[in-house]
Amino acid sequence: MAKLVALQHQNHPSFSLLHSSSFSDFNGARLHTSIQYKRKPVQPKGALHVTASGTKKILIMGGTRFIGIFLSRLLVKEGHQVTLFTRGKAPIAQQLPGESDKDFADFSSRILHLKGDRKDFDFVKSSLSAEGFDVVYDINGREADEVAPILDALPNLEQYIYCSSAGVYLKTDTPPHYEVDAVDPKSRHKGKLETESLLRTRGVNWTSLRPVYIYGPLNYNPVEEWFFHRLKAGRPIPVPNSGLQITQLGHVKDLAKLFVLVLGNEKANKQVFNVSGDKYVTFDGLAKACAKAGGFPDPEIVHYNPKEFDFGKKKAFPFRDQHFFASIEKAKSVLGWRPEFDLVEGLTDSYNLDFGQGTFRKEADFSTDDIILGKNLVLQS
Amino acid sequence: MAILSSPSVCSTAFFSTVKLLPRSLSPSHKLISFSSSLSVLHIPFSSSQLPITTQNKGTSSVRSGTNSVTITAAAAAGKRKVLIVNTNSGGHAVIGFYFAMELLGSGHDVTIFTVGEETSDKMKKPPFNRFVETREAGGKTVWGDPADIAKVVGEAAFDVVLDNNGKDLDTVKPVADWAKSSGVKQFLFISSAGIYKPTDEPPHIEGDVVKADAGHVGVEKYIAEIYSSWAVFRPQYMIGSGNNKDCEEWFFDRIVRSRPVPIPGSGMQLTNIAHVRDLSSMLTLAVENPDAASGNIFNCVSDRAVTLDGMAKLCAQAAGFPVNIVHYDPKAVGIDAKKAFPFRNMHFYSEPRAAKDLLGWKSSTNLAEDLKERFAEYVKIGRDKKPMKFELDDKILESLKVPVAV
């Protein structure tokens, strides 16, 4: 549906994202409305721009947990009509820490909900074809069979934007992972790979984004939270092996911006992009960065050999015990995207808006720490 | 451009640089535009080990052998007179040799000024013992003291000077000052990625903090002060035929003799080992695109890292041998890791972001493939059969009680 909106064009369309040095709470200001690198808008003269061809009817599969929360807000702010397809277990709109009442009211009044189970393929097909959407953001898809009914329902789909994973890469002796690198058909994330393959065969315009580890406020994966729990409790941080293993974190707000940047962007057509932070970090370095972010003193780090322990089903450390990082230079050079947060800034944002406010997803569980520390104490005596 | 040999196939292998036409570059790259008339340039090259390099070819494996190459006389239109002041030893020596060959292959004028005496024993080692190839390709070779550079190069005028010698200002200043006063337009300097301050957040990227007291830093600062068109290159480790310093050979020596490979620490330390042709291609791009290069620091490395363990494994795979890696703590064993092992015992990992962004440079190093070629040469020169002592290794293995097959 056409919407006549007076848009204040802050940026030249060819402008690529600037580093914003201002550091604000999440109220949308940090997530400044970005003009995409190459829009296909109508550009008539005069102050009033018809945005009909720029406004999309967007479906987000998921969208209430982490990336989608930030992504949906950006898209709504850009003037798109955004529907979240969820089972309705979580509220469609929840006010975020730092989000003003006005911003939240604006968002919650405009965000739409399509309630259903994406595993019910018949329902997916019928409900989507009844609605008709221009663009699908698939944020929570895991298996290829979940995608086929969506494509079947939307033959005129302009773009399928998929949240894949850098976990699809085959382990390498020569990091970083580049988008051209070999993938591992046996990995835990093979459903993501199979989805990417399906998208390729279907002839639809698709874009796949491969994040590494994502962090930021509302993270449901205990990444930074794992460190914060221990720092707050004044406990040592047990790190497996040398602590030199290199990983990489990408801030959810930076990810959301890239997800928006690929919308309607020719350069993203049928392309895969890694998405994460600009620099990598060692395990030891990450412990120290979390301490800085939360205003804690430098942590005591205890290294241990995981082979000497049996933790049962419990995870003693939140990261793969290996080097794991990916180059983001393709997204930077092809799309002009830049992550805004460096590691300590991003962890500080997460701390200030989430853990530091007293909120977290998982209760602290130091049982594996105690096993490790107990044995270490015994060895030292 | 004169045709130096007939287009028919010669028995000697040819070396030339394929300058691929159009590189895809963003509009921000300012390229000198070349005219497009064609000519043929063959450069006879006696060794088959310096293969044809293709720029901008990602991870393609390197080809060697006979190949006649058409290059545009566009290169001739932008012909530069380049002076390379080259060290007479060490890991960086080979850079000057490859750079000279690549420039000559692109039609530029090259003089290599090597420090010291032409008759010294140092000149019997690679790459210096291959300078005949440089001369055959049309390059000049001179020797002397960089402090007396005016005397050594005489009346010759140059557009570009690369100092691939000095590690401190005392050594480079005479060269830089002379170049400035004699009207050299562009000054390039081989610095070192070793000047970066160690970090918890790799990689080292251009602009990151460096060790203020490092000799190279003083040079970099001085050059930036006195020159308008300058560029600085920070390399790490290199492999390639003509290398003056052992790199992969250290691993091959042990692997072919079925000896354990002792690696300090966890073996997870990341480093960067590039084929020297990557460094040469980056330098050549800087010469041919001086505006784009001007005022910039470039990490002169490939775009992939490798762990120390990974390097041992890749060397073994290239050689077709198994490998037995043994980790040790140098302090516990009581040895200096610097003497026992050719790489830094820490993460030492830079990325060539500036070269990719500003020069449109692409890495072509492919360790798995390149090491096969390196191993072939290793065997060809008979180094696999050479009797060797491994005293430090033995000391390490003794303290770890690791058996060594006799």
TrEMBL record, chain A:
InterPro entries per UniProt: Epimerase_deHydtase, NAD(P)-bd_dom_sf
Cellular compartments per GO CC: cytosol
Name of the protein in question: NAD-dependent epimerase/dehydratase domain-containing protein
Originating species: Trapa natans (Water chestnut)
Residue stretches making up the NAD-dependent epimerase/dehydratase domain: 58-275
PANTHER family for this protein: CHLOROPLAST STEM-LOOP BINDING PROTEIN OF 41 KDA B, CHLOROPLASTIC (PTHR43725:SF8), UDP-GLUCOSE 4-EPIMERASE (PTHR43725)
Single Gene Ontology MF annotation: UDP-glucose 4-epimerase activity
Taxonomic lineage of the native organism: Eukaryota, Viridiplantae, Streptophyta, Embryophyta, Tracheophyta
Record-linked CDD domains: SDR_a1 (cd05265)
A Gene Ontology biological process term: monosaccharide metabolic process
Pfam family, one: Epimerase
Secretion signal, residue range per the UniProt entry: none
UniProtKB/TrEMBL annotation, chain B:
Pfam family name, one: Epimerase
Bilayer-crossing regions: none
Alphabetical list of InterPro entries matching this protein: Epimerase_deHydtase (IPR001509), NAD(P)-bd_dom_sf (IPR036291)
Signal peptide location: none
UniProt lineage: Eukaryota, Viridiplantae, Streptophyta, Embryophyta, Tracheophyta
GO cellular component, one term: cytosol
Name the UniProt record assigns to this protein: NAD-dependent epimerase/dehydratase domain-containing protein
GO MF annotation: an example: UDP-glucose 4-epimerase activity
Domain of life: Eukaryota
One GO BP annotation of this record: monosaccharide metabolic process
Domain (NAD-dependent epimerase/dehydratase): residue spans on this chain: 90-300
SUPFAM superfamilies cross-referenced by the UniProt entry: NAD(P)-binding Rossmann-fold domains (SSF51735)
